[in-house]
Amino acid sequence: MAAWKCLPALLLLVWVAGGISTTTTTTTCGNCKENGNYVICRHSAGGDVYEVEVLMETELLLQCKPSTTNLNLTFMEGCSFPSVEQIKVYGCPLPNASFGELFFQMGVYPENVTTFGFYDRNERDRPLEGWHLDGLEGLLTLEFVNNDFLGLPVDLFTPTPSLRRIKVVSDSFSSLPESIFFNLPDLETLNFERNRLETLPPGLFTNLTALTNVTFSHNYLSSVDPDFFSDKVNLESLDLSHNQIASLERNIFENLGALRNLSMQGNLLESLPSGVFSKLLSLEVLDLSFNVLRQLPEKAFDRLIDVKNIDLSNNSLDELPSEAFSKCESLARLSLRHNNLRKLQAEMFPRQTSLTFLDLGHNNISFTVNSAKILQEGPVSYEGNFPLNSQIRLQELLMNDNKIDFIPSAINNIFVDLKKVDLSGNEITDFSYHSLVFYQDSVILNLKNNNISYVDFHEIYDLLNEKEVKLYLEGNNLFCDCRMYLFTRIVQGQPIRKMKIMDIEVEDIEKVTCRNHDGIQQLLSQVDSTQLYCVIPDVQCIRNCSCLWRAHDSMVIIDCSFLGLQELPDLSILSKPLTKISVTLDMKNNSLYTLKGLKDPQFANLVNLTVSNNKISFINESDIPTTLKVLDVRGNELTNIPEPVLEVLNATDMILSFSGNPWDCDCDFINFLNFLHTPSRKVTDFDEITCARGNVYLHDLTEYSLCPYFMQPMVIVTLVAIGAFLLFFAVFGTVSFYKYKQGIKVWLYAHRMCLWAITEDEMDADKKFDAFISYSHKDEEFVNTVLVPGLENGDPKYRICLHYRDWVPGEYIQNQILQSVEASRRTIVVLSSNFIESVWGQLEFKAAHSQALQDGTSRIIVIVYGEIPPESELDDKLQLYISTKTYVKWGDAKFWEKLRYFMPHPPKKLNN
What we know:
The protein is of the alpha/beta class and 912 residues long. The strands form 6 sheets. The protein has a 19-stranded mixed β-sheet, with no helix packed on it. Strands 29-30-31-32-33-34-35-36 form an 8-stranded mixed β-sheet, with no helix packed on it. It has a 5-stranded parallel β-sheet with strand order 38-37-39-40-41, with helices on both faces. GO terms for molecular function: signaling receptor activity.
């Protein structure tokens, strides 16, 4: 309303795009001035301002101020908009003359107008007259919207015989003249929604042979005369929704054989006459939702072989005919939502596999009749009786808010195209990993607001794939115990046994809660999965003890504390369940005198033992199970730990607790003291262990303070032993070095140790290359891809001379061989069967051998690539060299270490 206050009496907007230049040239049009793409119209008498915006060539918009009571557009005389075909008038009163005259005053040719819309008139007392459409003989589309007309004149459409589309919406008339459309033979679409129509005259559609789409929704029709559609054989869409129709005549649709879309939604239908749809052989969409239907006649839809969508939602149906939709061969979508259905039968649904969408939500459907059988034999046994088994092409199945108490396994085993399942608001209690295995790669499964107490994932091997399931679980009664362990870790993104399973996303994870053993609710996303456990029933536990099962580490926790027991309990009752698991036994605050019996088979899986605050005074090495990882003997009567027991404990990584015992801190205690002082020893209470006398802490004691007179002979014996050992090591090391000198040097050089002992001759200081490689061209793949990269890119990096890279083109090959050998500290010969056949290779070896003899050094490194050729095929010098020198063989585990050892040793490496 604020925008209207900025305007005077009348605002006129006209869009006629492209017809006027966007320059600033000013022209006149009646009392209007054109400037760029705007036309400013000012009424000379009253000073009213009218704005005309030029935007589109064929469309004109006229909008009036609410206070405008009369249309007088004489001030626009002289304007011309000959190309305008579409006119829309908003918020204006009905003119005193015809709309044709009004348009002519604005410079529009009325006979050119094909589309006219009159919306939201501001003066409601003036009636619509039959002459208002005079002059619009070319009109094709007419829209009257929200004008509060109390009636339509019988001759209203006489001047517009070419009309094809009429839309009269949101008016106040309750009836129509029977002959109002008589002269409209080309009329195709008729929309009279949201009026106050109470009846329709039988002959309303006489002569409308082209009519295909009719809408009378949101009126007050209580019935429709059977003769109303008597000759409408071409009608394709009929919308009678949201009226007050309580019944239908059997033959009402008899002549609508071409009808494709029928909507009776939102009426008061309680029943349907038998055969009412039998002539609708072309029907594709049928909407009967939001009625009060209590039953359907037998064979109601039998003739609808082309129907694709039937909506019966929001009715009061208690049951369906036994073969209600069985002959609807093309049915793809069926909605039975919000009814009172209790049971389903397989015969009800299409015999073909056409159904892709089925909505059964908000009914009373249950499968409890077979629940006992399902619990006994498993869900697969019910597969053959599930009423939807034949609908294998279902993509969406909605069964929310029913009384279903289990998840039908057909959704996983039969429906190969299923992508969405809604089972929320039911009575489901069990949910296992089986229900997450679908054929499709991405599926939505909604299980909100059920009675699920836990998610059973004890076997998840079927989930080992790349598929995705989006899961909804809010509003269930989840109980956080050991059965929820695997599922909790999965939804929290924690690893599961190093296995990669499908992507399970709980979309409402921040709303999913579970209840712990104390009854406290907590978010599933914040549950500590390592602490999830189950209480083992008393009948399966030891008498008077309590037993728990912790899933994280497959641990049975047995609590027999504070019972006054004098011996260890008998675990044989748990022997069968304890296979491949671990046991924690808590025996604190009893009256045990010994740990005898812990090596019995019933304790074979014991890993944690707490016997604190008992009366144990001695521990035997035979009392320590090899499986034990934690031992707590605090608060007993132990005075020392025998050396055999210490040897057993030393061989383990056991966590120990010893405080609260009366330890004898004397000479016999030294071994135990040294045991406790071992840095790697895991003693949880070392700082709390004290001696029986003097309350001295053990961490303050030394061997000397425990036993002073014992130390002197011990020192002498120790020094003699150390001297003897050093002498033996020196003699043994010298002999071993001379025997294995070369191998030791190779190892030292490979590990960069004692490099000062490995010298290099200074005569090679000025040589350009570290090595020249001599090989047969048939072995160049090994040289170029393995040998050269390993030397040039390793550590250290060597400069390698290669004939194809470093030789000067055009020079004699013999000269270049000699130059390469002289410029390199080493010559590497790749000796293979191919090399023996290479003339140049033989020449290169002789040059290198000659250079080595001249320098008096070992410059040739032979790499045997493949098998060593027979001696008969080798050159004499090469044969002699192989038999007297060490060579390196490709494939040796220490090939690179040996090769680098024989290579020149860079000074910077030796100095390090």
